[in-house]
Amino acid sequence: MSEKLKELRKKAMGLPLEPGVYIMKNKKSEIIYIGKAKKLRNRVSQYFGSQNNHAEKVRRMVASVENFEYIITNSEFEALILECSLIKQHRPKYNILLKDDKGYSYIRVSPDKWRRITAVLQKADDGALYIGPYKSSYYVKQAVQSANAVFMLPDCKRRFPEDFGKGRPCLNFHIKKCSAPCRGKMKFSEYNERVERALEFLNGSSTESLKKLTAEMNEASENLDFEKAAMLRDSINAIKKLSDKQKVVQSKVKNQDVIAYFTDGEKGVFEVFRFEDGRLSDRQDFLVDTIEDAKSARAGFITSFYSGNNHIPPHITLDAPAEGMALLERYLTEKSGKRVHITVPQKGDSRRLVEMCQQNAAERLAQQKGFTGRELSVLEELRQVLSLPKTPVYIESYDISNLSGTDNVAGMVVFENGKPLRKAYRRFKIKGFEGQDDFASMNEVLTRRFEEYEAHKDEGEGFGRLPDLILLDGGKGQLSAVRPVLQRFGVDVPLFGMVKDDRHRTRAITTADEEIAINSRQRVFNFVTSVQDEVHRFAVSYHHKVRSKGAFRSSLTEIDGIGIERAKALLRYFKTIKNISVAELSELQSAPSMTRGAALAVYRHFHPEYSENKEE
Fold this sequence. Notes:
single chain, 21 helices
């Protein structure tokens, strides 16, 4: 522990055991973090104790602290109010700070003859018709997208009539989401009618649109205008499908916010679904660089989100508990002037909405990382199961393969972002000993791997990159053989074994002390099984290749003057070893790549009684 850390801890241990707010400052006396505590001494002293229990971001924050101040309050609730006020005033670097810059949104109808309907964030003086403003950019985007799809209006960048007949219609035409006026075959009157119906749909409700369209469809049918009736019928069906889809995200609680948090151990995302009159009216997501644990992060987000937001619903639904939920309820109740309930549902429709919200948070973070939400969520679940410090984005797995101690080899496979990274796969021949010893083999392989790391760590890729997790195909014996290697090289990488049952199926993940059952977590189980199957396949396929080369060498390549390439040429020419063995010397000599000396060596190999002098 550094002298500065000892000094700060000594000061923290002198704080009172009373509620209050603490203010962390750096060397420039800038406020970098503000927090509240029920007991100041206990909370603040935790920062300046052992750094091994802290996340990397907490350690970075603590390393920047030069001094701290504190304010005692009469209660924890007063500390919460003061904390919110100070964070809003100073906006410290390490607190959760939310930036809401989406403003108002509009529906724009272009001034062209062939009008287009789009969603925009700003109103311009361009002669277009603007409908709005609306609070929710999400609602506007969804509404415009739905209207264009239902009434089969284009959302591409082609201009009409300039681009009529230039190129083929796009995919939307073939899946009946666009009427493709770009073909130049649609009457302007029909296109204009579609635009008018879309605007009626946007200005009214889907129920009103359905009634009007149904009446017009019946009228068109009676007048034998079957083409118009069919178009109206398709629009009616599209609106019904859209309504059915929207029901999936309806809430029985009329007015509520659903909040979910997803983190990979480095960054986090908060997703907010806002419901009004039981319908999803808005959704927002916030990427946060937080240093707090999940409970504290949720509490920090709620206070930050609603401190600058006058719209506080009577019900707030969370995916998991937040720190000080009773205090948060009281704070939001006093701020909004009406009773606010914060709940964490365990089952039913509310739980389903929470899981949907969390899935969207995972997808948002995955986009930042460059892979899918499904892949990220299973890796995050694996992190939780194994209590890893961060999401294992880069995983290495090892397996040994041999036949009764012969042709000893090993395979290393790599999974990045939950998918095989085949260009990073590596193969090893065991060189240190003869015979079968899987533990010694695994020790040799990992030793060679980290020797390569020492030689290439400046490159940051391939062997020069440290994995987030190492999975060995084996149990405690393999772990015991490898752990000293990591210690010798000073490598701090989580190490686990993958254990199989009697039928060679994945059963559990093991540490040096205990097994961790994963059967109840289907996604983690499937992922670990895929890793174990892949590393086993890769090691075994390499072993088979080595054995086949050995078998080939044991016949033709044992003959003096016959290497692998010449042996292959002989087999291509004679097809089988048997044909080679009965071939005449002249036939062997005339074969591709053969000389008289090589042909004589092959002939003598299969005819040891032959003497060249007798031939003469």
